[in-house]
Design goal:
two-stranded antiparallel sheet, 2 strands
């Protein structure tokens, strides 16, 4: 039913534009790295890590835009009463919207996180370890982070009438989420959805002997993946609880 609601709406164009935007930015960043002649900077891990860093910054902002659009469509012209009359509960609408918006947001990051390492390897970039891990690990963490951020932003969009508040919070969350790594406090990211990608980052930064940045996978990255999944479930549950409370108040 949720997909039928969105038939012919601008939501899909908005999602497509976000996918193109993130992929285009990723492509330009990769092209700049590919032009370097220094082998220390031509590694699959470094190219992939740069793209992965965009998750913490862009996911809350894009999620706020997507969920705001869903909330506006739901309540415009008394459409919320129509769906309720058809037997769709507020909790059912929330879960359906979470799946749709979360999957759309996930694609924004999973697509470049998949083709960047493949392209880098084809262009002779150095690879340490398994290519499958360099693709799968960041993609899974990006997926769980995107779903958690979408759940919170969707709860805000459905409970707060002013959609600008959710967007503003998304921008602030993105700035904080990406700033935890440079501030050497990535562990704080476990306490809010936008910081999951920083806290669960599978990449380890270091400096090589020639002064260039070096990036490798952490010793046990799968624990970070499982933890990010757990945190995603927790934040999704919190968001669902908020919607349940609102439903009870009505």
């Amino acid at each position: 039913m949720e997909l039928r609601k969105l038939k012919g709406s601008s939501f899909w164009w908005m999602a497509l534009g976000m996918i193109v935007l993130v992929s285009s930015w990723s492509g330009l960043a990769f092209m700049k790295r590919a032009e370097s002649s220094n082998p220390a900077t031509r590694t699959v891990a470094l190219a992939q890590g740069e793209i992965f860093q965009t998750v913490g910054l862009l996911a809350p902002i894009l999620a706020a835009l997507l969920t705001s659009r869903l909330a506006v469509m739901e309540s415009s012209e008394r459409m919320d009463l129509k769906w309720l009359s058809l037997g769709q509960s507020p909790m059912g609408m929330f879960l359906a919207k979470l799946v749709v918006a979360g999957c759309a947001l996930t694609l924004c990051f999973v697509i470049p996180l998949t083709w960047i390492p493949l392209t880098a390897l084809a262009q002779g970039f150095h690879l340490e370890g398994s290519l499958a891990e360099y693709i799968l690990l960041p993609a899974l963490i990006a997926c769980f982070s995107s779903m958690a951020v979408t759940a919170i932003q969707l709860a805000l969009s459905l409970t707060i009438e002013r959609q600008a508040i959710g967007l503003g919070l998304g921008v602030i969350a993105g700035l904080i989420g990406t700033g935890l790594g440079p501030m050497s406090m990535p562990g704080l990211g476990w306490f809010f959805p936008a910081g999951i990608s920083s806290a669960a980052s599978p990449f380890l930064f270091s400096a090589s002997s020639d002064g260039f940045a070096r990036m490798t996978l952490v010793a046990n990255p799968w624990m970070k993946v499982l933890t990010s999944l757990l945190v995603c479930i927790i934040w999704s549950g919190i968001s669902a609880f908020v919607i349940k409370v609102k439903e009870s108040d009505r």
